[in-house]
């Protein structure tokens, strides 16, 4: 099947003719904001800083809903989350328009990997290293959500994650700050478009500010303790990239950072974000994170928490009980300066103007548009394209001289086995928020769609989670009759994401035993693994004949997986995170330090920085991912060996498709600063490029290196490059460097 997603996306934009917000210059908006602010009472100002989670109008929440409605009419609510659909948002907006100043509400929602059309989970999309595809995915999600009355998504999550025990690695772009920064910007562009206010885009949120991904022991919400150098160098850049891409809002985070809750951190929010970075958007707290400062032991009670959060620069209180109840009094008592409240309100009102809500508060809540957009079949094609680009081929052994994958379309018989083989909900992954979701194509459906002549048998063997082995005998019997076994195993959708930290990141339940039994049939086993995180699956890694890591691939997951299994799409994805061999290696990243006692060979580990019971190397390295073809790297050239101030250097090399099928390689550039005032990682990703080549085709590929490429935060947290020698490495993965050269910075 031929998909032209770029053309599709272009058509989609042209066809939708989004309504742009009437263009108002920034200073005209500022004047309107100031004029409105002058009319507002202190209570109305505090109301703008209050965000509520919508309650159901009927059933057990009816009373809560009624009281929310009263608050909205009274002008005590600035924004709502978890309310969606043109009808419901319109109704809520109508209440806000009954308030004295008729200030419209902002509707926010966690549109993380799609609204109606579900895309691969973010870590899966990150594996595509395809900024265009990632931007398109966010664009479609925005288009659908915006048609359902949503103004604002709480995405992208740009937290770096180097600990796969932490369930929220699913929502990010992996372990690397360079790749993470590029993806952060692409997602912001996709959600927001070139300018806020179009009715087919939404405001984005860079979250969670900051360092949430470094929770001690990978336990969600846990404390974070890290050097400022590490913070500046690894954890902050994706946030800065989001600011540079124009992200409308920030969300702070649940964790403490070096002893101070992020929500109460003036260092993060005032000094860095609104100070050094001159950020003009607003900061929303995470869910009740203002209130949680009491439990952290940082605020003595709720009023104290409100004071500390607003003074630190936290503008909006999500599902907050703190600001609305205590802020006005705190201003009267002089514990909070009026200017802090005014600044927060200004930032929020500015976004409401930029979104065009003062001109037409209902512009996003249009039931007819909602129906048309949510029925648009082109979204599925884009979802399938992104999904297949996210599937990582980890292993593909040969049998009688032939690679196991791709499978022949005229294969006689295929057994599709495993608890996730015909599961639909699991393929969608964690963050699905719309109840009008489209159908999900299971792996079994996808295989049936592709291999129509084959005899396809199916057995789940066990339910998702695979607690018992009761169905194994029947599954093994069915598998024994087939030519090849496709085994679909992994986490269920609810095993990664928020509050889903695991101390065992192996295959849940008895799935490894199922694999063992199937392998014993002597038939080749192709393992398709699903998860929202890197898992540990050594037995499968050692003994499966082929392995495809599918993450949670979304609505079109089954078709995308089958596209790869049958060779309609040659896999191109690369791991955005290191896959450890064992839990003891965590946290783990390719960008490690050399130490004074590096391991130079697996045999020489005594008094080295090593383990006595495991190699240091991961199971699969960052950047790893196979293709159905082979790529050759040769002829590295550097146009200058000395880089002087103001100059750039161009590194080039020849990439060749040495195989028999067309394929796409993601070539990666790493550097190492060999001597510096603070030690530098042995490898740092500084560039990548996706190149599609026909069989036999060669192309010269270039990377540009400037002073910025070689810069880092020194011991005084100053960004800059230090003269000296830099190793430049080009390769197919962080552990598969093919070419090296040296550059000297003067
Ligand atoms: C808590 C999560 O940490 C955050 O990412 C999310 O946006 C909010 N809840 C709202 O649902």
From TrEMBL:
One of its GO terms (molecular function) is beta-glucosidase activity. It comes from the Bacteria. Keywords: Glycosidase, Hydrolase, Signal. It is an enzyme of class 3 (hydrolase). InterPro entries: Cellulose_Degrad_GH3, Fn3-like, GH, Glyco_hydro_3_C, Glyco_hydro_3_C_sf, Glyco_hydro_3_N, Glyco_hydro_3_N_sf, Ig-like_fold. Residues 1-25 form the signal peptide. It catalyses: Hydrolysis of terminal, non-reducing beta-D-glucosyl residues with release of beta-D-glucose. Residues 665-734 form the Fibronectin type III-like domain. GO terms for biological process: glucan catabolic process. Its EC number is 3.2.1.21. Belongs to the glycosyl hydrolase 3 family. This is beta-glucosidase. It comes from Pseudoduganella albidiflava.
């Amino acid at each position: 099947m031929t998909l032209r997603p770029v053309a599709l996306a272009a058509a989609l934009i042209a066809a939708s003719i989004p309504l742009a917000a009437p263009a108002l210059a920034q200073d005209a908006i500022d004047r309107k904001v100031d004029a409105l602010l002058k009319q507002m009472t202190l209570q109305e100002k505090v109301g703008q800083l209050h965000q509520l989670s919508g309650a159901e109008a009927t059933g057990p929440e009816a009373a809560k809903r009624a009281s929310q409605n009263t608050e909205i009419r009274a002008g005590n609510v600035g924004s709502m989350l978890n309310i969606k659909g043109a009808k419901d948002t319109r109704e809520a907006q109508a209440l806000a328009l009954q308030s004295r100043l008729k200030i419209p509400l902002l509707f926010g929602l966690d549109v993380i990997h799609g609204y109606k059309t579900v895309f691969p989970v973010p870590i899966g999309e990150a594996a595509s290293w395809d900024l265009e595809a990632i931007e398109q995915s966010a664009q479609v999600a925005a288009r659908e959500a915006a048609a359902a009355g949503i103004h604002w998504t709480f995405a992208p999550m740009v937290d770096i994650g180097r600990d796969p025990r932490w369930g929220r690695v699913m929502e990010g772009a992996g372990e690397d700050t360079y790749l993470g920064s590029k993806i952060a910007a692409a997602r912001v562009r996709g959600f927001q478009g070139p300018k806020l206010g179009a009715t087919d885009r939404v405001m984005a949120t860079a979250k969670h500010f900051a360092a949430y991904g470094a929770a001690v022991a990978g336990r969600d919400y846990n404390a974070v303790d890290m050097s400022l150098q590490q913070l500046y160098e690894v954890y902050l850049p994706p946030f800065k990239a989001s600011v540079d891409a124009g992200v409308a809002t920030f969300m702070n985070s649940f964790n403490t950072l070096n002893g101070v809750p992020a929500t109460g951190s003036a260092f993060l929010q005032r000094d860095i974000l609104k100070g050094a970075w001159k950020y003009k958007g607003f900061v929303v707290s995470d869910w009740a994170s203002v209130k949680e400062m009491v439990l952290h032991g940082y605020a003595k009670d709720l009023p104290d928490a409100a004071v500390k959060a607003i003074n630190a620069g936290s503008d909006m209180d999500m599902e907050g009980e703190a600001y609305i109840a205590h802020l006005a009094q705190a201003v009267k008592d002089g514990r909070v300066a009026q200017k802090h409240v005014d600044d927060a309100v200004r930032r929020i009102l500015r976004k409401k103007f930029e979104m065009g809500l003062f001109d037409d508060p209902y512009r996003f809540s249009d039931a007819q548009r909602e129906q048309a957009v949510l029925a648009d079949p082109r979204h599925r094609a884009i979802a399938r394209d992104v999904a297949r680009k996210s599937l990582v081929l980890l292993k593909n052994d040969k049998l009688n001289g032939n690679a196991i994958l791709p499978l022949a379309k005229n294969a006689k018989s295929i057994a599709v086995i495993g608890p996730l083989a015909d599961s639909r909900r699991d393929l969608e992954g964690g963050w699905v928020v719309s109840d009008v979701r489209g159908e999900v194509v299971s792996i079994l459906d996808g295989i049936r769609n592709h291999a129509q002549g084959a005899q396809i048998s199916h057995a789940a063997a066990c339910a998702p989670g695979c607690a018992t082995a009761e169905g194994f005998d029947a599954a093994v019997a069915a598998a024994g009759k087939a030519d090849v076994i496709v085994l679909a195993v992994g986490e269920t959708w609810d095993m990664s994401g928020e509050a889903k930290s695991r101390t065992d990141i192996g295959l849940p339940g008895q799935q490894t035993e199922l694999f063992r039994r199937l392998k014993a049939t002597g038939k080749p086993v192709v393992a398709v693994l699903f998860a929202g995180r890197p898992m540990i699956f050594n037995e499968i890694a050692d003994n499966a004949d082929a392995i495809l890591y599918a993450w949670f691939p979304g609505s079109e997951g089954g078709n995308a997986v089958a596209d790869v299994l049958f060779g309609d799409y040659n896999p191109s994805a690369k791991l955005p995170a290191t896959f450890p061999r064992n839990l003891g290696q965590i946290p783990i990243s390719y960008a490690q330090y050399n130490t004074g006692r590096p391991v130079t060979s697996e045999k020489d580990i005594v008094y080295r920085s090593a383990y006595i019971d495991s190699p240091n190397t991961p199971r699969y390295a960052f950047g790893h991912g196979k293709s159905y073809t082979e790529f050759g790297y040769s002829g590295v050239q550097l146009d200058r060996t000395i880089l002087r101030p103001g100059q750039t250097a161009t590194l080039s090399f020849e990439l060749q498709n040495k195989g028999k099928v067309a394929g796409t390689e993601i070539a990666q550039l790493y550097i190492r600063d060999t001597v510096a005032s603070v030690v530098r990682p042995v490898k740092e990703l500084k560039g990548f490029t996706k190149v599609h080549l026909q069989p036999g085709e060669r192309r010269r590929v270039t990377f540009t290196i400037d002073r910025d490429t070689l810069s880092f935060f020194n011991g005084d947290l100053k960004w800059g490059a230090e003269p000296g020698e830099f190793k430049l490495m080009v390769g197919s993965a962080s552990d598969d460097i093919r070419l090296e050269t040296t550059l000297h910075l003067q």
